[in-house]
Design a protein that fits this description.
240 residues; alpha/beta; Rossmann fold; S-adenosyl-L-methionine-dependent methyltransferases; 2 domains; four-stranded antiparallel beta sheet; 11 strands; binds S-adenosylmethionine
Length: 240
């Protein structure tokens, strides 16, 4: 079921993590959290945090920790941020020893849970670990309404690492998107080719809303700005 990030983790930061996208996204997320009552130094859990690409933008304003299913991604995050707690866990069934004021799940990572049952289970776990009036901010991996097939092209050019990537994004089954990564990696005088496909669940806007509501999260805002990739569903844990 799980889309393996083992190989991609080694060059994930070079390829995907950059100030140009992450800084404005994090700034907007912070503004949204503030708008919905999350105060400075609140306990914030970054779900599916990967290599911790968003952590630098949050670590001074909140008491931040992370959770991800990939030990490889987490090890890179732990190396970069030794003072921060990172939990190995699955969105659909995680259990931690503390609760949080807010949780965020960015860059469409929720889509990796794939099925509606798993989406519902994830929202229940999120709700269960939020304090009353706590906030969940979840960015969808596109939606049924917004999805478009596409080919992404990009490159990274660092002194000791060159990467060219194309990603083919297409509908594989009615509500499953397949992303096929074609990566050419130039390192140590060698160019290697890496191909990997991952399956991602495509949910409708109503499915995101109902998964939240049924888990006890009142949808207080649907943010549609493009500075947060995918927009965001913001749910407040109903007190009681
Ligand atoms: C595209 S990466 C995004 C990482 C990070 N949010 C970012 O924006 O850089 C998706 C992440 O989701 C994680 N992931 C996938 N399925 C998961 C699950 N069921 N529970 C927790 N993390 C998961 C992967 O291990 C990976 O680190």
């Amino acid at each position: 079921m799980y889309s393996d990030f083992k190989t991609i983790s080694t060059y994930y930061d070079a390829l995907y993590v950059n100030d140009r996208e992450y800084a404005p996204e994090a700034a907007r997320v912070k503004a949204l959290l503030t708008r919905h009552g999350i105060v400075s130094q609140a306990d914030l859990l970054v779900l599916a945090c990967g290599t911790g690409g968003h952590i630098p933008y949050f670590k001074d304003d909140y008491h931040v920790s992370g959770l991800d299913l990939s030990e490889d991604m987490l090890n890179l995050a732990r190396e970069k941020f030794p003072g921060i707690r990172f939990h190995l866990g699955n969105l659909i069934d995680f259990k931690l020893d503390s609760d949080f004021d807010a949780m965020i799940c960015l860059y469409g990572s929720i889509g990796f849970v794939k099925t509606m049952d798993n989406l519902r289970a994830s929202m229940k776990r999120i709700s269960a670990h939020l304090r009353p009036d706590g906030l969940a901010l979840i960015t969808p991996w596109s939606t049924v309404e917004d999805f478009q097939s596409l080919i992404v092209v990009d490159a990274a050019d660092k002194p000791d690492l060159k990467i060219a990537r194309m990603e083919q994004v297409r509908l594989k089954e009615p509500k499953i998107v397949e992303v096929t990564f074609h990566h050419l990696i130039g390192q140590n005088n060698e160019v290697t080719y890496h191909k990997q496909s991952m399956k991602i669940g495509l949910f409708s806007r109503e499915e995101y809303r109902s998964a939240m509501t049924d888990a006890g999260l009142e949808v207080v805002e649907e943010y549609r700005g493009t500075d947060v990739r995918g927009g965001a569903y913001i749910g407040k844990r109903v007190a009681g």
